[in-house]
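Lab notebook, entry 275. We have the chain sequence and a SMILES string for fe (ii) ion, and the next step in the workflow is to get a structural model of the bound complex before anyone spends time on docking refinements. Request logged below.

Task: model protein plus fe (ii) ion, output structure tokens.
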Amino acid sequence: MLKIMLASDIHNCHSAWYGMSNEERMADLVRCLGEAKRERSYDLTLCLGDVSLDFWAWAEGGSVFWDPPVSRTAEFMEKIAPAFPAPFYITPGNHEQYAPEDWERITGQPREQIVCRDEAVFVLLDAFSGNLGPAENSDGMYRPVNVGLIRDALRDAGDRPVFLAAHWFDLGVGAESEEFKALLREETRIRALFCGHDHYSFVRSTGEDAGNKPILHTGHFSYSGDKDPCRFYRGWRELTVRDDGTWESLYRVPAQVIRYPGWDVHMDAHTQDAI
Ligand SMILES: [Fe+2]
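Result returned:
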């Protein structure tokens, strides 16, 4: 059996949310991860991007173009990543538009990769691979996912289930390739997709034209994707793959406090949207 932690949108950065400074939030994350590792035996972590806001284009701007420049991604890799269940695999989000060689120098990993285990194969795809190494603050540019990499994984997967993971899968009109959608329709070994980006924690479908596969959203550890922060709490997704290839997943919310000016909202630890 294989138990995987999937985390996304941690946003180690200059911003505070819900009355909590970045330093407080990162300390809370490290504490939660320590508890999670003691209570459950995770075999590996897949981090689906936006660990920073390094190229943030709005308001006060991202830290890469500060003087002197600051890489919050490098800071994350040095100080926070070791707290996650090892081995730790990461793919970039739309706020980590580092050129491939810079990303590799900072994280020690390529921008996309295949992770093979006896029970399953995972394809970590670089969804925002357009306009890398920008000369000024900007948003990441979505590019259709690398179908060649998925085919490489399928070639070596044998009977094992294959899971696709990226910061985002844009299945809206015209964004993704027909080749990708056809592969999702035809390839039964691709069991599910995992993504972050919208800071939601729920499960939806890829739709009829893309094989009706489940897309499991991995939530966030920063701010809710909804105006009401109590709609989507900080947490991470858990995936269990059994030796016979069957699998299940849920979103795990640790106990936390959302601070408003004048009052707090307390949330007990719980799980949600199990599939
Ligand atoms: Fe994000």
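Notes for the group: The chain is about 20% helix and 25% strand. Worth checking against the assay data. The chain has a mean pLDDT of 96.
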